[in-house]
Design a protein that fits this description.
Layout lengths: L37 H12 L4 H12 L16 H15 L11
Length: about 110
């Protein structure tokens, strides 16, 4: 007998250990606070910084958002705003793909 492959999306085991999945934060709008709600965004970032699975979350966010524009990134993830995650990806790409010597020092 053969079985079909398991293709359902399931969160990684580490995700269940995240601060954002625990009461009272699970399902909270805190992680998606508008930019003008600076106190809520700061609180979400500070909570993320203390999360026991921060490194795994950061790696997952980078993988899931790779190549996406800033406008297609949402919420606080891995203690970073969408813009911060986009900038981190740009920096990582620059380090992985050094510019030719003729372009060094040019911005």
């Amino acid at each position: 007998m053969s079985y079909a492959p398991d293709t359902l999306h399931r969160p990684a085991e580490w995700a269940a250990k995240g601060t954002c999945t625990q009461p009272p934060y699970a399902g909270s709008d805190l992680w998606y606070a508008d930019e003008w709600r600076k106190d809520d965004r700061r609180m979400a970032i500070n909570l993320c910084r203390t999360c026991p699975v921060l490194d795994a979350c950061r790696a997952a966010a980078a993988k899931e958002e790779a190549g996406k524009a800033k406008a297609h990134r949402h919420g606080i993830r891995a203690a970073m705003t969408p813009r911060q995650r986009w900038l981190a990806e740009q920096k990582s790409r620059e380090q992985a793909e050094p510019r030719p010597a003729s372009q060094k020092g040019q911005l």
